[in-house]
# Entry
Amino acid sequence: MHIAQAMKTFAVALVLVLTAVGLWAGAETEEAPAADADKRYVTDPVTGKAYTAHEYGGTLTFVKGNDGGWIDAYKENAVSMWSLVYEKLGKLDWALDRDAYPFTGGYMTPLYALRGALAESWEQPDDTTIVINVRQGVHWHDKAPMNGREFTAGDVEHSFQRYLGLGRFAGDDPSPGGGELTSVPWESVEATGDHTVVFKLKEPRLRALNLILDWYQMLMQPPEVVDEHGGITDWRQGVGTGPYEMTDWVLGSSFEYTRNPNYWAFDEKWPENRLPYIEKIYGLVIVEHATRIAGLRAGTIDFIGHPGSTQIFDINQSLSLQRTNPEINQYPWSQRSDNCAGINTTVAPFDDVRVRRAMQMALDLDTMNDSYYKGLGGTIPRGFVGRKFPSYMTPFEDWPAELKGYYSYDPEGAEALLDEAGYPRGADGIRFKTEYMHFDRFPVSWSEFMASYWKQIGVEIDILTPTQAEHTARRNAGDWALTSEACGTDADPMIIAPGFRSTVARSGVHDAQYDAWFETAVNASTIEEQQSIIKQMDMRYVEQHWMIWGPWAPQYNVAQPWIMGYNGEGIIGGNTTHSVFSRLWIDGQMKEAMGH
# Structure
């Protein structure tokens, strides 16, 4: 680590500790300065919000929950860490109306919301051919071994052939994270000129273009580095075309990005402005929620939120911060319910749909929402398809009356179902005992809240709190009964739907009808056909009660008042969370006036 950065990290850590124990007042007692009449302002053409005029320079410090040590996007989930350095062929259109697309979460972007990044344009001359026209005038960072050379179609060919196991990489395994992209029947990916790449399929796939432009891990990585080292083996080898270079990384502690002065792109909202604005972006790895909040109050942290997986989930934390620091901006958002319970339907007693329904009917969701989320959440049930995709789902008001009853609070009905299923109360009042595997990213208090309701119908829950790695291992091995899960996700339904196939061990679901529908949806020739099939799959999910629905509730991205250009966004494409910072700027005068 550079000495200056080491001192900065030490100073920040010291302030955070002092703040946490109440010995540092910092900005907590300061008020935001009055507006300067001489200052220039700009109006966001998308949101209508006014900001102080763009500035170049300054620093932004944000918090990440875990840096993972992920280096090579071919092998692992490295995209969030590297999305400021490497780029994809497409990106979410930053100038798009926020009502047209929510800019939340980390899911792959629907085709309608994409614009070209390293791809200038594209054509589909027939149903098995996609031609990508590579953007001209883009250069790799001026760092060995790329040394600022121009980005070409050959670089696209190299990255895709490696990822898919084609061409020069034929015989190699496709990327282990390839998912839907590698399941497409590709025939070839070939550069046919300096700026043209032709993708050929063996048979048509409706989503092929979307996958080419914005598959989660499909970053364009430096061919010379990959060929020399057999991959990206050290963060120092990271050379991209993006708005920043990675200039420091102490694993598990801190990392640093430095502005690329020769970046090719301009601000989508203010096209006369070359990106990016901020000179340096620092990331601090802080696991403890209280320490993150302390840093915000002290002004040593500029941002916590989805870019960094550090958003506030706890309503009480949000309200407390609002009371003590009303000048700090909070941006509520929700892309799904994180309060659902996944059910392993392959193990007793949850292999009986009556038991699954009883577990749902035991929860008084309206009361739970009022008491736990101050009424800020929403309790209307849905399946795996979110609110933003109405063409793919049947809304609750149109469900059959019997089905609505299974998703309504009815403890007496729940007990009757358990009796019918052969699980009467014992002498101690307990019908059966089971384990609930809590996911430690979320407050355990919600899991405990659900368990208290289940106890009232005679189901005793032992809540386990494994690490994320342990949680993942047990899910993948099918070694679980109940677990924290998400439902009703506002993301492309074809991204969510594969998770409930019988071949996915972690799903806890084995259903031949669902599997058959999924294969039909994959091979659909029109969007309308795919929507119709997904709607059937979503209703089967609901009818078979593969998840226990819990209310969706707001999460909060939080930014200091001197961060300009921000409206609560979380992504600029599939999993490209850190890229959001490349569109923001710092009001240095305000930051200094507030003592930072």
About this structure: Residues 3-20 form the longest helix (18 residues). Confidence is low (pLDDT under 50) at residues 1-35. The CA atoms of residues 131 and 345 lie 44 Å apart.
